[in-house]
Design a protein that fits this description.
This protein has helices spanning about 15-20, 25-45, 50-70, 75-95, 95-115, 120-140, 140-160, 165-185, 190-210, 210-235, 240-260, 265-280, 285-305, 310-325, 330-350, 355-370, 375-395, 395-415, 420-435. The radius of gyration is 26 Å and the shape is elongated. With about 450 residues, it is mainly α.
């Protein structure tokens, strides 16, 4: 039976009847063929950027594969694990995180059982664990994400030991993910260790690439790992090697963006934003501003067709205002800070999750106005910033404490400039209570 990629309305009646009455090897072969065709339908929808359309046919694949696995696990459970994994991907991308994670966990469990019977499935298990870790991190289950990713690395190491040339890339990818998971949990020394190991593997693969396309693919993975390493080194107080890693990452992405117009622009913009931070950390404000300006230009171009990039643009504009001010360009700094406030306010109007970005942008704009000797204009922005950060700190104290303290200090300074010392002292006292763990 030929099945094509079209809006899915469920299994055809003949297939449904065969599924319900299946009992012979011929039935199972028929159903396995239908499941394979349906799986390709779902994959095609997903490749076309329509994961919501991929969900329906893939749910039916899972149903068929469950029936087959129940009849003969030794033969069919591997197919079930793959179907569960695919459905988990489509649901997660579509935003159905809870169900997606349940299915991914089931896929991992199935792959474990199959791998015990057939060593060829160890690679699939490692991939499933790697993906599971990334998804757990997205929903904030960081400890679980780290454990799962660590297990993926262990498996990748075992496979690499048997066939280094074949599995070096997979091990590098898993190590890079593990570095990210460590960084998310504040284990920055571990993040650096795993990141450096991943980079070492990538450099070997770049040099061993058999053609330009393969080399470029490895270069892109190398740049991603360098970006992550730069951030981890910066947190550890190693600004110079952090800047070196970020500089190399930006250079690689620049070359790739030139070779493949449109493909690596987002990566280049992100790398330039990171490089701007690293330049700032080594007190090179002019260089930080230059990198940030290029990032803003790229983000602005991307935003015309991808509104999802607006948050990155808002952050880049906000940082650009800081860098330009430090570089002695107050008028340009004011322009960037005003643009950051306008954009983050627009985003916060439709999504309250952007109020933190708005508060930080307002706080920076207040500073720029104060530097321009316009304290009366600065004050309302500083007050509004404190209002947003207080609200967020009440809900997420660890995450927003530094930003709230910064905003309170800024507001106190603005009030002092206006001769309102008593009010300024109240905000300083509030900051002291927060530092001491009292609200």
């Amino acid at each position: 039976m030929e099945l094509t990629a079209m809006p899915w309305t469920g299994l055809p009646d003949p297939v449904r009847r065969r599924l319900e009455t299946a009992g012979s090897p011929a039935d199972f072969e028929y159903l396995a063929d239908v499941a394979s065709q349906l799986s390709e339908v779902g994959q095609q929808w997903y490749r076309d950027g329509q994961p919501e359309e991929a969900i329906g046919p893939t749910r039916d694949v899972v149903e068929i594969r469950r029936r087959l696995s129940a009849a003969d696990a030794s033969r069919y459970e591997g197919g079930l694990a793959t179907a569960l994994s695919n459905l988990g991907v489509y649901l997660f991308v579509y935003g159905q995180h809870e169900e997606a994670l349940e299915l991914t966990q089931e896929a991992v469990d199935s792959y474990r059982r199959v791998a015990q019977r057939d060593s060829r499935y160890w690679e699939s298990l490692a991939s499933a664990l790697n993906n599971f870790g990334s998804r757990l991190a997205v929903v904030g289950r960081l400890d679980e994400a780290l454990a799962v990713t660590d297990e993926a690395v262990t498996l990748r190491r075992e496979l690499f030991a048997v066939a280094p040339a074949r599995y070096a890339g997979d091990l590098a990818a898993a190590l890079n993910n593990l570095a990210v998971r460590c960084k998310e949990l504040g284990r920055h020394e571990d993040a650096v260790e795993y990141g450096q190991e991943a980079i070492g593997l990538r450099r070997v693969r770049v040099n061993a690439a058999h053609d330009q396309h393969a080399r470029d693919t490895e270069e892109a993975e190398l740049a991603a790992a360098l970006n992550n390493l730069g951030e981890a080194l910066a947190v550890l107080g190693q600004p110079t090697p952090a800047r070196e890693a970020s500089t190399e990452a930006a250079g690689v992405y620049r070359a790739l963006a030139q070779a493949y117009p449109g493909r690596y622009v987002t990566d280049l913009a992100t790398a330039l934003s990171n490089l701007a931070k690293r330049e700032w950390e080594v007190q090179r404000a002019s260089q930080a501003a230059s990198a940030a300006e290029e990032a803003v230009t790229l983000y602005q171009a991307l935003a015309h067709t991808n509104p999802g990039i607006l948050k990155d643009l808002s952050t880049a504009l906000n940082n650009l205002g800081v860098y330009r001010a430090a570089a002695g360009r107050p008028a340009d700094a004011m322009q960037a800070s005003q643009a950051a406030v306008a954009l983050s306010r627009h985003l916060a109007e439709t999504n309250p999750g952007f109020r933190g970005d708005l508060g930080i942008a307002l706080n920076n704009l207040a500073t720029r106005l104060a530097e321009a000797r316009r304290p009366h204009e600065a004050l309302p922005h500083a007050e509004e910033a404190v209002g947003y950060l207080r609200e967020l700190h009440a809900a997420f104290p660890e995450r927003y404490r530094p930003d709230l303290l910064d905003c309170l200090a800024n507001l106190s300074n603005r009030l002092t400039e206006l001769g309102r010392e008593a009010e300024a002292e109240r905000y300083l006292a509030e900051a002291t209570r927060i530092r001491r763990g009292r609200t």
